[in-house]
Design a protein that fits this description.
Low-confidence stretches: none
Shape: globular
Helix content: 25-40%
Number of helices: 14
Distance between the termini: 83 Å
Structural class: alpha/beta
Mean pLDDT: 97
Bound molecules: nicotinamide-adenine-dinucleotide
Largest sheet: 7 strands, mixed
Strand content: 15-25%
Number of strands: 20
Strand order of the largest sheet: 15-16-17-14-13-18-19
Length: 497
């Protein structure tokens, strides 16, 4: 019997007011029904926002280290339940167990960092220009935050948002991606078990165009933290802009790995295979373009194709599998349509390029690891985010051309360069237009205590992760204390007078 999941509002599990539900199935085996989830509407969002608003005064009044203590306890629950949560995540999202364990671990690391941050949350003390006057800057909570999540990091991304927002003293309504709601249910259960009071975190499941829109537009929501596609991100920015709401946008990418003539090719090979085919290419930081200098191009292409063909694809619950299915049939169709576009544009398909069928594959959304060679920088497969196991290989003559090609898309999330030349590595760090640059490491693998995000169409300048997340979820308050006992006028009273 499939589990019936319910919205979580004001500490209670409740169905959508409409009574409608949708099914969540395993993308590796569609016979495996994980559960049904409410298909909610604006009325459910309104109730959740009201609960978060009512819970806000008491939560913000709690000393920050006390909030941190609750987060630490939640993290301990995640540590205890890590294996079970990873298995559930592989069932609902498809990525292999090693990676779902990593996803839960990222939530754990983010929680431990947040608990530590609760004893800092530093402001600044600054000298006043006037005598007998103190000046400092402190951080204040903001109110009810709306959080809208994608499906590719079902627990890590909600943790990037919820942990710092809660430490800062906000309450929240979270809308999980429709494809990976069970992981958010479990994550919030850990928070509740750890002592997060009723109403502080609420979950409303359902469609982005319905639940997401209602959350965006609700006047009592002070900010939106959104991770997802650039197309939806623009919509979020538009609505938030009109209402002067803060929004943090973590959007798409078209990340590239550069391999120069002097690179350690075996190392670069491991990097590109992990970067391009890890998470079945469904990472915002996935390596979607491989830019190879001509001196090693043919040799390296052969190495990549040989390794890609040998990748073991299958159900991520099998420990020996290296690449799971795509998350949905829709995603598989999108990937395949890009393969057809690549062919039509004149790129040379050197491996993969079709769904995997046959025993063990027919009930899931499997796709072969795919490599295109002879890709030109302007082709659509070199410009648009595919979000699947498709690698476009571009040949370049020089370092300068490599950087130009890397920078030649609208995105700017992650980037990588393999070289043994420190001078070129340093020049690349300077010239690459991206929020993240790796040297001799793949485009994926961010650590939770550092800022994460991108430039250009990848975001709007905020960085979730690390200390910068706390800047998103708090307001600065500048405080002046005059203890002179007299009226002192800044800019007008001077020392000489
Ligand atoms: P998506 O943009 O389709 O959906 C993201 C979320 O937005 C979902 O919860 C969806 O239901 C909701 N949504 C859709 N329309 C909405 C609307 N009109 N109003 C409000 N909410 C709405 O993205 P996805 O397919 O879930 O995820 C893949 C995308 O996410 C890729 O583009 C990927 O690069 C990006 N991503 C970015 C990062 C990052 O940190 N930069 C991390 C992971 C994923």
């Amino acid at each position: 019997m499939a589990k019936e999941y319910l919205n979580f509002i004001n500490g209670k599990f409740v169905p959508a007011k409409s009574g409608k539900v949708y099914e969540n199935r395993n993308p590796a085996d569609t016979d495996d029904l994980i559960g049904t989830f409410p298909s909610s509407g604006p009325e459910d969002v309104a109730e959740a926002v009201a609960a978060a608003k009512a819970a806000y005064p008491a939560w913000r009044a709690l000393p920050v280290p006390k909030r941190g203590e609750i987060i630490r306890r939640a993290t301990e629950i995640l540590i205890r339940r890590k294996e079970e949560l990873a298995r559930l995540m592989t069932r609902e999202m498809g990525k292999v167990l090693k990676e779902t364990r990593g996803d839960v671990q990222e939530a754990i690391d983010t929680g431990l960092y947040a608990a530590g941050e609760s004893r800092r949350l530093w402001g600044k003390v600054v000298p006043s220009e006037l005598p007998n006057k103190a000046a400092f800057v402190t951080r204040q909570p903001m109110g009810v935050w709306g959080m809208i999540c994608p499906w590719n990091f079902p627990m890590a991304i909600p943790s990037w948002k919820l942990f710092p927002a809660l430490i800062c003293g906000n309450t929240a309504v979270i809308k999980p991606a429709t494809l990976t709601p069970a992981s958010v249910h479990e994550f919030v259960s850990a928070l509740t078990e750890a002592g997060v009071p009723a109403g502080v975190v609420n979950i409303v499941y359902g469609e982005g165009a319905v639940v997401g829109e209602a959350l965006l537009n609700h006047p009592d929501v002070c900010g939106i933290s959104f991770t997802g596609s650039s197309a939806v991100g623009k919509r979020i920015a538009e609505v938030c802009g009109k209402q002067l709401k803060r929004c943090s946008l973590e959007l798409g990418g078209k990340n590239a790995q550069i391999v120069l003539n002097d690179a350690d090719l075996s190392l670069a090979l491991e990097g590109v295979i992990w970067g391009a085919f890890g998470t079945t290419g469904q990472r915002c930081t996935a390596t979607s373009r491989l830019i190879v200098q001509s001196g090693v191009h043919d040799e390296f292409l052969e190495m990549v194709v040989e390794r890609a063909k040998r990748l073991k694809v299958g159900n991520g619950l099998d420990e020996t599998v290296e690449m799971g299915p795509l998350v949905s049939e829709g995603q598989r169709q999108t990937v395949h349509s890009y393969v057809e576009i690549g062919r039509a544009e004149g790129a040379r398909l050197v491996c993969g390029g079709e769904p995997l069928r046959g025993e063990g594959y027919d009930k899931g959304f499997f796709y072969k690891p795919t490599v295109f060679a002879g890709v030109k920088p302007g082709m659509r497969i070199a410009q648009e985010e595919i979000f699947g196991p498709v690698l476009s290989v571009i040949r370049v003559e020089s370092f300068d051309e490599a950087i130009e090609v890397l920078n030649g898309t609208m995105y700017g999330l992650s980037s990588s360069i393999y070289t043994r030349d420190i001078n070129l590595a340093m020049k690349a760090i300077e010239k690459i237009e991206a929020g993240i640059t790796y040297v001799n490491a793949p485009t994926i693998g961010a650590e939770c205590h550092l800022p994460f995000g991108g430039v250009k169409a990848t975001g709007n300048g905020h960085r979730e992760g690390g200390w910068t997340a706390y800047e998103i979820f708090s307001e600065l308050k500048t405080v002046y204390i005059d203890y002179s006992g007299a009226l002192q006028k800044a800019q007008i009273d001077t020392a000489e007078e």
